[in-house]
Amino acid sequence: MVALARRFGRYRPYAQHEQIELDIGPGLTPRHDSVANFLRRGGLSGSDEPLNVLVRRTSYFREEYAYGTTVLAPGIEVFLYHQGLVDAAAAVHGRPLIEPAIAYANLLVPGQELAVHTDVPEFRGLDRKLVPQWLLVVMHHSGLFDRWRLHIATGVAWFGDAAGGEFVCWPPGHADLRGPGERIPARHGTAAVLDTDSVFHGVARVGGEDAPAPQLRAGCELHAAAADGWDLVTTDGALCGHFAADEVRFSISWKAYCFADATERAAWQDHSDDLAVDTVLDRLAADLEHRTGAADLRTSPALGQRLIDTYIRFPEPADG
Ligand SMILES: [Fe+2]
Q: How far, in Å, is the centroid of ligand 1 from the Cα of 295?
């Protein structure tokens, strides 16, 4: 996998990937929920650094290696269909029919963190290619659309020897999401499989708590260096930084659909019971109006932000 990562070669900042906007949330970025929470709290360490520094800390790099049956990084197949991941996924949701769906790489350079979040869930008829990611997250946390939810298990596998960068999570039963969470070392050749759509998680600072924020320029990419390690390259191709191979935290995330039986899988495949976005927004707006006594939220451009603020309750690492 380490050799595959280098062969693949080029990694864009995650924020640069596609973006979908709705009238009820103009200007909201794909993961407005977790980024705003990160900036508000200063990440896991409660940093009081200025905004531009915090943004550099969480502007990590991502690329897809496989999506559905499309292989984008040849060689990823042994990982995509790994029996250990498949068996663990079946156990996570108690659903035995497992359909591997995606594998993607996350790369973080020294001083970076991954903001605490839950992953982007899917529902029959709605996924991240069709509606904003934050809306899917709101939908799951609201509990209003469980009948349409696709149960997804996520495996996070770590490769390489970067210091720090522990996987931090608040698994079920973690009292009220208070306290620092549980830390799993990102040790080479190990993986964790869990319901990351429900369990809040993040990545502690790579390189240790004292690692300064990386000197990133907007839009710069991470490229496998010709000799060894990784180069930071600006949008016009200029070299603006270099990291040794063992400084960069490299993980591959794996996601699989987990079905109880063939009937449940068929409903997903034949689109016989799909949700439409208007149905979702009508129901969320009505629920929010019921909770708050507000009126006419359905067409309000502030609805998106209000949904995020109401339904997504983040952990409170400093308490407890
Ligand atoms: Fe995640």
A: 34
